[in-house]
Amino acid sequence: MKPTLILGAIVAALAAPAMAHVVLTVRSAPAGSYYTAAFEVGHGCAGSATTALRVEIPAAILTAKPQPKAGWTLEIEREPLAAPFKGDGGEMVTTRAKAFIWRGRLPDDEFDEFGVTAKLPQAPGGLVFPAVQTCEQGEARWVETPVAGGPRLTHPAPTLTVTPGADDGMAGMDMSHH
Predict the structure, then answer these.
(1) What span, in angstroms and rounded, lies between the C-alpha atoms of 58 and 35?
(2) Are 113 and 33 in contact (CB under 8 A)?
(3) Rounded mean pLDDT of 72-89?
(4) CB–CB of 98/111 below 8 Å?
(5) Residue 59 contacts by C-beta under 8 Å, 6 or more apart in sequence?
(6) Order of strands across the sheet with 112-119?
(7) pLDDT of residue 151
(8) Looking at residue 75, what DSSP letter applies?
(9) Cα–Cα distance, 15 to 165 (Å, whole number)
(10) Spatial separation of the C-alpha atoms in residues 25 and 36, rounded to whole Å
(11) What's the CA dihedral at 58, 101, 173, 90 to 10 degrees?
């Protein structure tokens, strides 16, 4: 009985931070690597089901793709690049995804994850992914940017810490998937 209680307490402790906001499940990754983000939606809006999630992609990320979800429609907002570049497949890349919008229905008493894969910039630092959660009644705007030493935020945007990568720029890359 004790192991079950301990496991239950660990699961509850791990789940507690994610239940309060739209958050990234993995919050740091090496510069220059491919990163797969999971934006976790832990609840609806004051008891109302989530009907859409819009996630903005930071300007420093030039290549990003959303993961489709069964039962949800997916929209990609694009913008032209100031300087086109040659992609991994040799094609010229002239636009970038600036936001992804999933539309469906997630009851308030359930959670789900919305996936994005992206090539991270070479420079370490923080990347902010403002997210707007639309519900059957109301919305939650997870768009506040954290500032070191600043006040505690009530609606913080999902944030990724890009850590220094390996010298060869290949840190964290799994080329079999890209």
Answers:
(1) 13
(2) no
(3) 93
(4) no
(5) 98
(6) 22-24, 34-41, 112-119, 63-66
(7) 86
(8) E
(9) 29
(10) 10
(11) -90
